[in-house]
Amino acid sequence: MAKYNTATYVIEYELAFDNDNPSSVLDKLEKTAKAVYNDCLNECLKRYHKLIHDKEYQKLLKAYKTSNNKKELNKQLNDIALSYGYSEYSMHEYVKKPYEYFNKKLGSHECQKIATRAFKTIEKLRYHQADKVNFKSKYDSFSIEGKSSTSKLHYCDDDLSISYGKYKYKLKIKRNDIYAQLALLDKVKYVRIYSKTIRGKRRWFVQLILKGTPPSKNRQYGNSSKVQGIDIGTSTIAVVSNDKTEMIELAPNCKEDEHKIKVLSRKLDRSRRATNPDNYNNDGTITKGKHKWYKSKNYIKIQAKLKDEYRKLSVKRKQSHEILANQIIAESTDIRVEKMNFKGLQKRSLKTTINKNGKINSKKRYGKTIKNRAPGMLLSIIDRKLKYKNLELKKINTFQVKASQYNPINGTYKKKQLKDRLVKLNEEIIVQRDLLSAYIIAHTNDDLETIDAVSCYDDFNSFKKLQDNEIQRLKDSSQLSWYIH
Questions:
Q1: Is the four-CA dihedral 255, 258, 260, 263 of positive or negative sign?
Q2: I need a labelling partner for 115 at 20 to 30 A (CA). Which of 12, 109, 228, 259 fits?
């Protein structure tokens, strides 16, 4: 049967428990789901290893890189994979064994979803998107979801509950939460349950995957005729339109949580070293070989605190991004941004460089900053909100436009070093680099590959005035000082 791509959104509710419907049932269900997942992951990994060691497969893989007929080679590679039972639907067949072994505690749909999840994990290895796979331990949380409204785990709209076999768990809905009540009027496609540990207490939540668009929350959408250019960095975002120029720090309210995480991480490291001294060399590095790590009671307490701090950081960061996305969309709906590879920026540098003192420079890049500020998440939130109006975030061709190199006054290109945050366009005019890039992006043509040089030149004086006001605002507030000097 063909799949239909309909508008979908997700809403979360907490589950309520009583004596007849205890949380222990879901605890056991999660334990079973993790066992099924680990079994499927292990089997899929065996099939994958057989596949990659096949001589014919290796031969075709080498030819694939230089071949002009990739479609035919791709078919041959998939045929070899199928011969080893390496496919999503082969894993659906395999999962019948653990499904029967656990006396059908999990529904068939839920088991198939787990098998798909295991297969997609191994696919990341196959396409070099991951270096290794991780099996689920007894300490890890694990979500369980169905495939439709008829799955064993499903939503009952007659009494606003989640049904699993003979058990029913009511949704916790606040009386004044109009949004949560209106969302339940839409059709539920399927449900997903999972647990969270909040301030040391384990709580269960359900995500309802609903058909349609979310209820209106007085979200404002700006004029589609106005163009906004966005230049997003690892921790800041520059937003420019015809009447607005702004440099904003991403998730500024998360700084305190980031500091707490840093302190707890160091405390955890000291505790681990004190408990496992034999696993370290005299210089503090970990000894080679396999190790057995012991955790003290204090270590486990600190670990729980650290996990809770990460949870708080995640919630605050998402909330901050949602607010900022609403502000950007309220300005206009024609939003343009460069294509960014944040995963590439997270990786360590491959080059080994030596500084003027003869020491090797650190190969660290922007991994921690991107993890804390999540610039990619902001872009995905903006895109999601635009799709409610059948629009999308427009991504320009970075290599064709070269926004950071373009000079709007004389139409020339010049490469700049990363440390140069202020750009000298001529003897008199100096502008902030990120704001200038956002301005250039806002003046791209509809093909998203070329710059409208005429309008870019004509509107520059207006941009320069707005940019000077923004720089003065940042100086007065002592914000983002590194970006304006």
A1: negative
A2: 12
- CA end-to-end span of the chain: 60
DSSP 362: P
CB of 190 within 8 A of CB of 149? yes
Cα(77)–Cα(290) distance, rounded to whole angstroms?
A: 36
Query: What is the number of alpha carbons within 13 Å of residue 311 lying toward its C-beta?
Result: 14
Please list the pLDDT of the chain residue by residue as tens digits (485 residues).
445 577 889 999 999 999 999 999 999 999 999 999 999 999 999 999 999 999 999 999 988 888 888 888 999 999 999 999 999 999 999 999 999 999 888 999 999 999 999 999 999 999 988 889 999 998 889 999 999 988 999 999 889 999 998 999 999 999 999 999 999 999 999 999 999 999 889 999 999 999 988 988 777 898 888 999 999 988 899 999 988 999 999 998 888 888 999 999 999 999 999 999 999 999 889 999 889 999 999 999 999 999 999 999 999 999 999 999 999 999 999 999 998 887 777 777 777 777 777 777 777 777 888 888 899 999 999 999 999 888 999 999 988 998 889 999 988 888 888 778 888 888 888 899 999 999 999 999 999 999 999 999 999 999 999 999 999 998 888 888 777 77
Between CA 77 and CA 133 the distance in angstroms is: 23
Q: Which two tokens stand for residue 186?
A: 């839409």
Residue 104 to residue 154: CA distance in whole angstroms:
16
Instruction: Report the amino acid identity of residue 27.
Output: D
| Residue carrying the six token digits 């997270």 | 346
467: nearest Cα among 426, 423, 427: 423
Decide if 437 contacts 446 (C-beta within 8 A): no
Record the tokens describing residue 345, joined without a space: 């920026």
Would you give the DSSP letter of residue 253?
Answer: G
Asked if 54 and 80 touch (Cβ cutoff 8 Å), the reply is yes
Strand pairing category for 394-396 and 153-156: unpaired
> Alpha helix (H) ranges present in 55-105?
55-66, 70-83, 88-94, 96-101
Q: Return the exposure string of 254-292: e unless at least 16 CB atoms fall within 10 Å of the residue's CB, then b.
A: beebbebbeebeeebeebbeeebeeeeeeeeeeeeeeee
What does the alpha-carbon distance between residue 257 and residue 269 come to, in Å, rounded to a whole number? 18
What pTM did the predictor assign? Answer: 0.87
Query: CA gyration radius for the chain?
Result: 27
Show the tokens assigned to 214. Answer: 């979310």
Cα dist. 364→45, 126, 130, 268 in Å?
31, 26, 19, 22
Q: For residue 202, which amino acid is it?
A: R
- Of the candidates 456, 224, 444, 464, the residue with the CA atom closest to the CA atom of residue 337: 444
Structure tokens belonging to residue 177: 């939460």
Both tokens of residue 143?
């979500």
